[in-house]
Amino acid sequence: MEKMTVAQARDVSAVGKQILLQGWVRTRRDSKGGFSFLELNDGSCFGNVQVVADGKLPNYESEVKKLNAGASISVAGEVRASPAQGQPTEVHAQSVTVHGWADPETYALQKKRHSFEFLRTLAHLRPRTNTFGAVARVRNCICRSIHEFFQEQGFLYVHPPIITASDCEGAGQMFKVTTLDLAKVPQQGPAVDHTQDFFGRPTYLTVSGQLEAEIFACSLGKVYTFGPTFRAENSNTSRHLAEFWMVEPEMAFFDLTDNMDLAEAFLKRIFRDVLERCSEDMKFFNERIDQTAIATLEGVANSQFVRLSYTEAVDLLQKSGATFEFPVAWGNDLQAEHERYLTEQTFKKPVILFDYPSKIKPFYMRVNDDGKTVRAMDVLVPRVGEIIGGSQREERLDVLERRMREQNLNPESYWWYLDLRRYGTVPHSGFGLGLERTIQFATGMANIRDVIPFPRTPGSADF
Ligand code: 4AD
Ligand code: MG
Fold it and tell me: Ligand 1 pocket: which of 214, 218, 239, 244 to mutate (most atoms <8 Å of CB)?
Protein backbone atom coordinates (compact mmCIF):
# COMPACT_ATOMS: atom_id res chain seq x y z
CA MET A 1 0.00 0.00 0.00
CA GLU A 2 1.32 3.41 -1.01
CA LYS A 3 1.16 6.46 1.25
CA MET A 4 -0.30 9.35 -0.72
CA THR A 5 -1.16 12.98 -0.22
CA VAL A 6 -4.63 14.25 -0.94
CA ALA A 7 -3.17 16.13 -3.93
CA GLN A 8 -1.85 12.87 -5.37
CA ALA A 9 -5.04 10.97 -4.64
CA ARG A 10 -7.10 13.60 -6.46
CA ASP A 11 -5.17 13.03 -9.65
CA VAL A 12 -6.61 10.60 -12.21
CA SER A 13 -3.26 8.82 -12.38
CA ALA A 14 -4.01 7.42 -8.91
CA VAL A 15 -7.11 5.53 -10.06
CA GLY A 16 -6.85 1.82 -9.29
CA LYS A 17 -4.19 2.20 -6.59
CA GLN A 18 -4.39 0.91 -3.02
CA ILE A 19 -3.35 3.80 -0.83
CA LEU A 20 -3.01 5.17 2.69
CA LEU A 21 -4.27 8.71 3.24
CA GLN A 22 -3.88 10.76 6.41
CA GLY A 23 -5.43 14.08 7.26
CA TRP A 24 -8.24 16.01 8.90
CA VAL A 25 -11.95 15.66 8.25
CA ARG A 26 -13.55 18.79 6.83
CA THR A 27 -17.14 17.46 6.64
CA ARG A 28 -19.12 14.26 6.99
CA ARG A 29 -22.33 13.53 5.13
CA ASP A 30 -24.33 10.34 5.75
CA SER A 31 -26.17 8.77 2.84
CA LYS A 32 -29.53 7.06 3.16
CA GLY A 33 -27.90 4.08 1.47
CA GLY A 34 -26.09 3.28 4.73
CA PHE A 35 -22.66 4.75 4.03
CA SER A 36 -20.94 8.11 4.58
CA PHE A 37 -18.91 10.65 2.61
CA LEU A 38 -15.93 12.23 4.34
CA GLU A 39 -14.20 15.27 2.88
CA LEU A 40 -10.55 14.89 3.80
CA ASN A 41 -7.81 17.55 3.66
CA ASP A 42 -4.12 17.22 4.50
CA GLY A 43 -2.79 20.61 3.39
CA SER A 44 -1.12 19.26 0.25
CA CYS A 45 -3.55 21.22 -1.90
CA PHE A 46 -6.57 23.45 -1.67
CA GLY A 47 -9.18 20.82 -2.49
CA ASN A 48 -10.33 17.86 -0.43
CA VAL A 49 -10.63 14.27 -1.50
CA GLN A 50 -13.91 12.50 -0.96
CA VAL A 51 -13.69 9.31 1.06
CA VAL A 52 -16.56 6.84 0.76
CA ALA A 53 -16.90 4.94 4.05
CA ASP A 54 -19.09 1.86 3.77
CA GLY A 55 -21.61 0.87 6.45
CA LYS A 56 -19.93 -2.54 6.67
CA LEU A 57 -16.73 -1.09 8.15
CA PRO A 58 -16.38 -2.63 11.64
CA ASN A 59 -16.20 0.79 13.33
CA TYR A 60 -18.84 2.43 11.10
CA GLU A 61 -21.52 2.94 13.79
CA SER A 62 -19.12 3.33 16.71
CA GLU A 63 -16.68 5.80 15.11
CA VAL A 64 -17.15 6.81 11.46
CA LYS A 65 -20.65 8.15 12.09
CA LYS A 66 -19.29 10.27 14.94
CA LEU A 67 -16.55 11.98 12.93
CA ASN A 68 -16.78 15.76 12.79
CA ALA A 69 -14.84 18.66 11.31
CA GLY A 70 -11.30 18.70 12.70
CA ALA A 71 -10.96 15.00 13.56
CA SER A 72 -7.76 13.32 12.33
CA ILE A 73 -7.89 9.97 10.55
CA SER A 74 -5.99 7.46 8.47
CA VAL A 75 -7.83 5.89 5.56
CA ALA A 76 -6.69 2.77 3.75
CA GLY A 77 -8.53 2.21 0.52
CA GLU A 78 -8.74 2.19 -3.24
CA VAL A 79 -8.78 5.23 -5.51
CA ARG A 80 -11.61 5.09 -8.04
CA ALA A 81 -12.81 7.43 -10.74
CA SER A 82 -15.58 9.52 -9.21
CA PRO A 83 -19.04 9.60 -10.75
CA ALA A 84 -19.67 12.97 -9.07
CA GLN A 85 -19.19 16.34 -10.78
CA GLY A 86 -16.13 18.44 -9.97
CA GLN A 87 -13.86 15.71 -8.62
CA PRO A 88 -11.94 13.26 -10.76
CA THR A 89 -11.41 10.68 -8.03
CA GLU A 90 -12.73 9.37 -4.73
CA VAL A 91 -11.33 6.90 -2.23
CA HIS A 92 -13.26 3.82 -1.17
CA ALA A 93 -12.20 3.05 2.39
CA GLN A 94 -11.27 -0.44 3.53
CA SER A 95 -10.45 0.92 6.96
CA VAL A 96 -10.79 4.22 8.80
CA THR A 97 -8.60 4.75 11.88
CA VAL A 98 -9.37 7.68 14.15
CA HIS A 99 -6.31 9.40 15.68
CA GLY A 100 -7.96 12.35 17.38
CA TRP A 101 -11.51 13.54 17.93
CA ALA A 102 -12.65 17.16 17.71
CA ASP A 103 -15.67 17.79 19.91
CA PRO A 104 -18.08 19.99 17.90
CA GLU A 105 -19.38 21.45 21.16
CA THR A 106 -16.04 23.14 21.84
CA TYR A 107 -14.02 23.08 18.59
CA ALA A 108 -13.94 26.68 17.40
CA LEU A 109 -13.70 26.06 13.65
CA GLN A 110 -17.18 25.05 12.64
CA LYS A 111 -18.44 25.18 9.10
CA LYS A 112 -19.72 28.75 9.17
CA ARG A 113 -17.46 31.51 7.91
CA HIS A 114 -15.38 33.34 10.48
CA SER A 115 -14.03 36.88 10.23
CA PHE A 116 -10.29 37.29 9.80
CA GLU A 117 -10.25 39.36 13.01
CA PHE A 118 -11.74 36.45 14.93
CA LEU A 119 -9.35 33.97 13.32
CA ARG A 120 -6.38 36.08 14.46
CA THR A 121 -7.33 35.10 18.00
CA LEU A 122 -7.03 31.46 16.86
CA ALA A 123 -3.62 31.59 15.17
CA HIS A 124 -3.05 27.96 16.24
CA LEU A 125 -6.13 26.73 14.37
CA ARG A 126 -6.47 29.11 11.43
CA PRO A 127 -4.03 27.16 9.21
CA ARG A 128 -6.80 24.55 9.05
CA THR A 129 -9.11 26.92 7.20
CA ASN A 130 -9.27 27.24 3.41
CA THR A 131 -7.94 30.79 3.38
CA PHE A 132 -4.95 30.26 5.65
CA GLY A 133 -4.00 26.99 4.02
CA ALA A 134 -3.98 28.79 0.67
CA VAL A 135 -1.94 31.69 2.11
CA ALA A 136 0.61 29.25 3.55
CA ARG A 137 1.03 27.52 0.19
CA VAL A 138 1.41 30.82 -1.71
CA ARG A 139 3.92 32.02 0.92
CA ASN A 140 5.91 28.82 0.43
CA CYS A 141 5.74 29.14 -3.36
CA ILE A 142 7.07 32.71 -3.23
CA CYS A 143 9.96 31.73 -0.93
CA ARG A 144 10.89 28.92 -3.29
CA SER A 145 10.85 31.30 -6.29
CA ILE A 146 13.02 33.80 -4.41
CA HIS A 147 15.73 31.20 -3.85
CA GLU A 148 15.39 29.74 -7.35
CA PHE A 149 15.60 33.14 -9.03
CA PHE A 150 18.79 34.16 -7.26
CA GLN A 151 20.44 30.75 -7.28
CA GLU A 152 19.86 30.39 -11.03
CA GLN A 153 21.61 33.73 -11.55
CA GLY A 154 24.64 32.83 -9.45
CA PHE A 155 23.84 34.84 -6.31
CA LEU A 156 25.24 33.61 -2.99
CA TYR A 157 22.81 33.27 -0.09
CA VAL A 158 24.43 35.00 2.91
CA HIS A 159 23.28 35.30 6.52
CA PRO A 160 23.54 38.65 8.26
CA PRO A 161 23.24 38.73 12.06
CA ILE A 162 19.90 39.27 13.72
CA ILE A 163 21.46 40.97 16.74
CA THR A 164 23.34 44.09 15.68
CA ALA A 165 24.87 47.27 17.04
CA SER A 166 24.16 49.43 13.97
CA ASP A 167 20.98 51.11 12.76
CA CYS A 168 20.96 50.49 9.00
CA GLU A 169 18.04 52.73 8.16
CA GLY A 170 19.14 55.39 10.66
CA ALA A 171 15.53 55.79 11.71
CA GLY A 172 15.95 54.78 15.35
CA GLN A 173 13.11 52.26 15.20
CA MET A 174 14.99 49.40 16.77
CA PHE A 175 14.11 46.88 19.47
CA LYS A 176 16.75 46.78 22.20
CA VAL A 177 18.37 43.48 23.08
CA THR A 178 19.55 43.34 26.67
CA THR A 179 19.99 41.01 29.62
CA LEU A 180 20.12 43.89 32.12
CA ASP A 181 17.61 43.68 34.95
CA LEU A 182 15.11 46.37 34.05
CA ALA A 183 14.15 46.68 37.71
CA LYS A 184 17.68 47.84 38.62
CA VAL A 185 19.49 49.11 35.58
CA PRO A 186 23.20 49.81 36.22
CA GLN A 187 24.01 53.44 35.57
CA GLN A 188 27.02 55.50 34.71
CA GLY A 189 25.92 58.98 35.64
CA PRO A 190 22.52 59.59 34.05
CA ALA A 191 23.13 57.00 31.29
CA VAL A 192 22.68 53.23 31.27
CA ASP A 193 25.98 51.42 31.88
CA HIS A 194 26.02 49.11 28.89
CA THR A 195 29.48 47.79 29.74
CA GLN A 196 27.64 45.52 32.17
CA ASP A 197 25.23 44.30 29.49
CA PHE A 198 25.58 40.94 27.72
CA PHE A 199 27.52 42.28 24.73
CA GLY A 200 29.20 45.09 26.64
CA ARG A 201 27.47 47.66 24.43
CA PRO A 202 23.94 48.59 23.33
CA THR A 203 22.53 46.05 20.85
CA TYR A 204 19.33 45.75 18.85
CA LEU A 205 17.31 43.45 16.58
CA THR A 206 18.26 44.24 13.00
CA VAL A 207 16.01 46.38 10.78
CA SER A 208 17.84 45.21 7.63
CA GLY A 209 20.73 42.98 6.64
CA GLN A 210 21.90 45.41 3.98
CA LEU A 211 25.12 46.68 5.54
CA GLU A 212 26.38 43.15 6.06
CA ALA A 213 25.18 42.14 2.57
CA GLU A 214 27.31 45.00 1.21
CA ILE A 215 30.36 43.45 2.88
CA PHE A 216 29.78 40.22 0.98
CA ALA A 217 28.85 41.92 -2.32
CA CYS A 218 32.06 43.92 -2.10
CA SER A 219 33.98 40.67 -1.72
CA LEU A 220 32.07 38.08 -3.71
CA GLY A 221 29.95 39.95 -6.27
CA LYS A 222 26.26 39.06 -6.18
CA VAL A 223 24.63 38.02 -2.90
CA TYR A 224 21.24 37.98 -1.22
CA THR A 225 19.94 37.72 2.31
CA PHE A 226 16.53 36.39 3.28
CA GLY A 227 15.39 36.50 6.86
CA PRO A 228 13.36 38.18 9.57
CA THR A 229 13.78 41.89 10.29
CA PHE A 230 12.32 43.98 13.09
CA ARG A 231 10.94 47.48 13.37
CA ALA A 232 9.71 49.10 16.54
CA GLU A 233 7.58 51.66 14.72
CA ASN A 234 4.19 52.26 16.24
CA SER A 235 2.29 51.76 12.98
CA ASN A 236 -1.08 50.13 13.31
CA THR A 237 -1.80 49.81 9.62
CA SER A 238 -2.77 46.96 7.30
CA ARG A 239 0.74 47.06 5.76
CA HIS A 240 3.07 47.18 8.81
CA LEU A 241 4.44 44.46 11.04
CA ALA A 242 6.97 44.75 13.86
CA GLU A 243 8.55 41.49 12.63
CA PHE A 244 8.59 40.79 8.92
CA TRP A 245 10.70 38.93 6.37
CA MET A 246 12.87 40.74 3.88
CA VAL A 247 14.85 39.59 0.83
CA GLU A 248 17.86 41.78 0.16
CA PRO A 249 19.96 41.25 -2.97
CA GLU A 250 23.18 43.27 -3.14
CA MET A 251 25.30 43.42 -6.28
CA ALA A 252 28.79 44.77 -7.00
CA PHE A 253 29.13 46.67 -10.29
CA PHE A 254 25.36 47.31 -10.56
CA ASP A 255 24.11 50.84 -11.09
CA LEU A 256 20.58 52.01 -10.41
CA THR A 257 19.28 50.98 -13.84
CA ASP A 258 20.71 47.46 -13.39
CA ASN A 259 19.05 47.43 -9.98
CA MET A 260 15.64 48.39 -11.42
CA ASP A 261 15.96 45.79 -14.18
CA LEU A 262 16.70 43.11 -11.60
CA ALA A 263 13.80 44.14 -9.35
CA GLU A 264 11.36 44.09 -12.25
CA ALA A 265 12.50 40.68 -13.52
CA PHE A 266 12.43 39.33 -9.96
CA LEU A 267 8.84 40.39 -9.26
CA LYS A 268 7.62 39.08 -12.61
CA ARG A 269 9.21 35.72 -11.96
CA ILE A 270 7.61 35.45 -8.50
CA PHE A 271 4.13 36.27 -9.76
CA ARG A 272 4.36 34.00 -12.80
CA ASP A 273 5.34 31.13 -10.52
CA VAL A 274 2.42 31.83 -8.18
CA LEU A 275 -0.03 31.78 -11.11
CA GLU A 276 1.44 28.54 -12.41
CA ARG A 277 2.21 26.62 -9.22
CA CYS A 278 -0.69 27.76 -7.03
CA SER A 279 -3.46 27.92 -9.61
CA GLU A 280 -6.04 26.26 -7.37
CA ASP A 281 -5.25 28.58 -4.45
CA MET A 282 -5.31 31.62 -6.75
CA LYS A 283 -8.71 30.57 -8.11
CA PHE A 284 -9.95 30.63 -4.53
CA PHE A 285 -8.48 34.10 -3.82
CA ASN A 286 -10.00 35.35 -7.04
CA GLU A 287 -13.44 34.03 -6.12
CA ARG A 288 -13.55 34.85 -2.43
CA ILE A 289 -11.03 37.57 -1.58
CA ASP A 290 -10.35 39.86 -4.54
CA GLN A 291 -12.07 39.44 -7.91
CA THR A 292 -9.14 41.08 -9.66
CA ALA A 293 -6.39 38.95 -8.06
CA ILE A 294 -5.53 36.78 -11.06
CA ALA A 295 -5.92 39.55 -13.65
CA THR A 296 -3.69 41.82 -11.55
CA LEU A 297 -0.91 39.24 -11.34
CA GLU A 298 -1.14 38.42 -15.03
CA GLY A 299 -1.01 42.14 -15.78
CA VAL A 300 2.14 42.59 -13.71
CA ALA A 301 3.82 39.52 -15.17
CA ASN A 302 3.24 40.81 -18.70
CA SER A 303 3.54 44.57 -18.33
CA GLN A 304 6.48 46.87 -18.45
CA PHE A 305 6.84 48.78 -15.19
CA VAL A 306 6.67 52.57 -15.37
CA ARG A 307 9.90 54.34 -14.34
CA LEU A 308 9.48 57.86 -13.12
CA SER A 309 11.68 60.22 -11.14
CA TYR A 310 10.40 61.51 -7.81
CA THR A 311 10.41 65.04 -9.23
CA GLU A 312 8.26 63.98 -12.19
CA ALA A 313 5.91 62.15 -9.82
CA VAL A 314 5.47 65.23 -7.61
CA ASP A 315 4.76 67.30 -10.68
CA LEU A 316 2.25 64.79 -11.97
CA LEU A 317 0.45 64.55 -8.62
CA GLN A 318 0.30 68.34 -8.25
CA LYS A 319 -1.20 68.71 -11.73
CA SER A 320 -3.60 65.79 -11.28
CA GLY A 321 -6.36 67.88 -9.73
CA ALA A 322 -6.91 65.15 -7.14
CA THR A 323 -7.45 66.09 -3.51
CA PHE A 324 -5.18 64.39 -0.99
CA GLU A 325 -5.22 64.37 2.79
CA PHE A 326 -1.49 65.18 2.82
CA PRO A 327 -0.34 67.94 0.45
CA VAL A 328 2.19 67.03 -2.22
CA ALA A 329 5.32 69.17 -2.05
CA TRP A 330 8.82 68.56 -3.39
CA GLY A 331 10.97 67.40 -0.47
CA ASN A 332 8.19 65.62 1.44
CA ASP A 333 7.93 61.87 1.59
CA LEU A 334 5.12 60.50 -0.55
CA GLN A 335 2.21 59.09 1.45
CA ALA A 336 0.38 55.85 0.73
CA GLU A 337 -2.47 57.83 -0.89
CA HIS A 338 -0.03 59.41 -3.37
CA GLU A 339 1.62 56.09 -4.18
CA ARG A 340 -1.76 54.48 -4.72
CA TYR A 341 -2.90 57.30 -6.94
CA LEU A 342 0.08 56.74 -9.23
CA THR A 343 -0.32 52.95 -9.46
CA GLU A 344 -4.12 52.73 -9.40
CA GLN A 345 -5.32 55.88 -11.17
CA THR A 346 -2.53 57.24 -13.37
CA PHE A 347 -0.73 54.15 -14.64
CA LYS A 348 -2.73 51.13 -13.44
CA LYS A 349 0.45 49.09 -13.08
CA PRO A 350 3.66 48.94 -11.03
CA VAL A 351 5.69 52.13 -10.91
CA ILE A 352 9.36 52.48 -10.02
CA LEU A 353 10.09 55.90 -8.56
CA PHE A 354 13.72 56.97 -8.40
CA ASP A 355 16.00 59.91 -7.49
CA TYR A 356 14.37 60.95 -4.22
CA PRO A 357 15.38 64.04 -2.20
CA SER A 358 18.43 63.19 -0.11
CA LYS A 359 16.84 64.60 3.06
CA ILE A 360 14.18 61.89 3.24
CA LYS A 361 16.46 58.92 2.49
CA PRO A 362 19.16 57.11 4.52
CA PHE A 363 22.87 57.97 4.54
CA TYR A 364 24.03 55.08 2.35
CA MET A 365 22.31 56.15 -0.91
CA ARG A 366 24.50 57.57 -3.66
CA VAL A 367 24.26 61.36 -4.05
CA ASN A 368 23.41 62.61 -7.54
CA ASP A 369 25.35 65.39 -9.27
CA ASP A 370 22.53 67.86 -8.50
CA GLY A 371 23.48 67.51 -4.81
CA LYS A 372 19.81 67.42 -3.83
CA THR A 373 18.71 63.93 -4.78
CA VAL A 374 19.98 60.40 -4.22
CA ARG A 375 19.92 57.27 -6.38
CA ALA A 376 17.02 55.72 -4.50
CA MET A 377 14.28 53.58 -6.00
CA ASP A 378 10.94 52.42 -4.62
CA VAL A 379 8.80 49.89 -6.46
CA LEU A 380 5.10 50.68 -5.94
CA VAL A 381 2.24 48.34 -6.77
CA PRO A 382 -1.52 48.86 -6.81
CA ARG A 383 -3.34 48.37 -3.47
CA VAL A 384 -0.24 47.65 -1.39
CA GLY A 385 1.95 50.62 -2.31
CA GLU A 386 5.69 50.28 -1.63
CA ILE A 387 6.80 46.69 -1.98
CA ILE A 388 10.54 47.27 -2.67
CA GLY A 389 12.93 49.93 -1.41
CA GLY A 390 16.47 50.12 -2.71
CA SER A 391 19.26 52.25 -4.12
CA GLN A 392 22.65 52.54 -5.66
CA ARG A 393 25.05 52.85 -2.71
CA GLU A 394 27.42 55.73 -2.04
CA GLU A 395 30.85 54.31 -2.87
CA ARG A 396 32.83 57.56 -2.35
CA LEU A 397 34.38 57.70 1.11
CA ASP A 398 34.31 61.49 1.55
CA VAL A 399 30.69 61.86 0.41
CA LEU A 400 29.58 58.97 2.61
CA GLU A 401 31.27 60.44 5.71
CA ARG A 402 29.66 63.80 5.03
CA ARG A 403 26.22 62.20 4.67
CA MET A 404 26.66 60.35 7.96
CA ARG A 405 27.48 63.54 9.82
CA GLU A 406 24.51 65.30 8.20
CA GLN A 407 22.30 62.57 9.62
CA ASN A 408 23.92 62.73 13.07
CA LEU A 409 25.58 59.33 12.74
CA ASN A 410 29.09 58.81 14.06
CA PRO A 411 31.34 57.60 11.19
CA GLU A 412 33.64 55.95 13.73
CA SER A 413 31.04 53.45 14.75
CA TYR A 414 30.64 52.47 11.07
CA TRP A 415 34.41 52.11 10.55
CA TRP A 416 34.06 48.67 8.95
CA TYR A 417 31.40 49.93 6.52
CA LEU A 418 33.70 52.82 5.56
CA ASP A 419 36.61 50.40 5.06
CA LEU A 420 34.67 48.96 2.10
CA ARG A 421 35.12 52.42 0.51
CA ARG A 422 38.76 52.74 1.62
CA TYR A 423 39.90 49.50 0.04
CA GLY A 424 38.82 48.49 -3.46
CA THR A 425 35.56 50.43 -3.48
CA VAL A 426 33.12 49.63 -6.32
CA PRO A 427 29.83 50.99 -7.57
CA HIS A 428 27.15 48.71 -6.16
CA SER A 429 23.41 48.53 -5.62
CA GLY A 430 20.73 46.52 -3.92
CA PHE A 431 17.17 46.50 -2.68
CA GLY A 432 14.85 45.01 -0.09
CA LEU A 433 11.59 43.25 -0.90
CA GLY A 434 9.05 42.87 1.92
CA LEU A 435 7.88 39.25 1.79
CA GLU A 436 4.53 39.86 3.49
CA ARG A 437 3.62 42.79 1.24
CA THR A 438 4.45 40.57 -1.73
CA ILE A 439 2.08 37.87 -0.45
CA GLN A 440 -0.57 40.51 0.22
CA PHE A 441 -0.28 41.73 -3.32
CA ALA A 442 -0.36 38.21 -4.82
CA THR A 443 -3.36 36.98 -2.84
CA GLY A 444 -5.41 40.15 -2.50
CA MET A 445 -5.53 39.68 1.29
CA ALA A 446 -6.41 43.04 2.81
CA ASN A 447 -4.43 42.84 6.05
CA ILE A 448 -0.75 42.00 6.39
CA ARG A 449 -1.52 40.24 9.71
CA ASP A 450 -3.24 37.51 7.71
CA VAL A 451 -0.29 36.59 5.50
CA ILE A 452 2.26 35.81 8.25
CA PRO A 453 1.63 32.83 10.54
CA PHE A 454 2.13 34.71 13.82
CA PRO A 455 1.86 38.49 13.38
CA ARG A 456 3.80 40.77 15.73
CA THR A 457 2.23 44.22 15.96
CA PRO A 458 2.09 46.95 18.64
CA GLY A 459 0.42 45.45 21.70
CA SER A 460 0.20 41.95 20.26
CA ALA A 461 2.63 39.02 20.42
CA ASP A 462 0.29 36.13 21.19
CA PHE A 463 1.15 32.58 20.14
O1 4AD B 1 12.38 50.48 2.29
P2 4AD B 1 13.03 49.68 3.39
O3 4AD B 1 13.04 50.28 4.74
O4 4AD B 1 14.50 49.37 2.85
C5 4AD B 1 15.52 48.81 3.57
O6 4AD B 1 15.45 48.34 4.67
C7 4AD B 1 16.79 48.71 2.76
N8 4AD B 1 17.89 48.49 3.71
C9 4AD B 1 16.67 47.60 1.75
C10 4AD B 1 17.89 47.44 0.89
O11 4AD B 1 18.17 48.32 0.08
N12 4AD B 1 18.62 46.36 1.04
O13 4AD B 1 12.31 48.25 3.47
C14 4AD B 1 12.27 47.41 2.36
C15 4AD B 1 10.88 46.79 2.20
C16 4AD B 1 9.77 47.79 1.99
O17 4AD B 1 9.68 48.21 0.66
C18 4AD B 1 8.56 46.99 2.43
O19 4AD B 1 8.14 46.10 1.40
C20 4AD B 1 9.13 46.16 3.56
O21 4AD B 1 10.53 46.11 3.39
N22 4AD B 1 8.82 46.75 4.87
C23 4AD B 1 7.88 46.30 5.71
N24 4AD B 1 7.01 45.26 5.61
C25 4AD B 1 6.19 45.04 6.65
N26 4AD B 1 6.17 45.78 7.78
C27 4AD B 1 7.02 46.83 7.94
N28 4AD B 1 7.01 47.53 9.07
C29 4AD B 1 7.92 47.12 6.87
N30 4AD B 1 8.89 48.04 6.69
C31 4AD B 1 9.42 47.80 5.47
MG1 MG C 1 11.27 52.18 2.05
Answer: 244
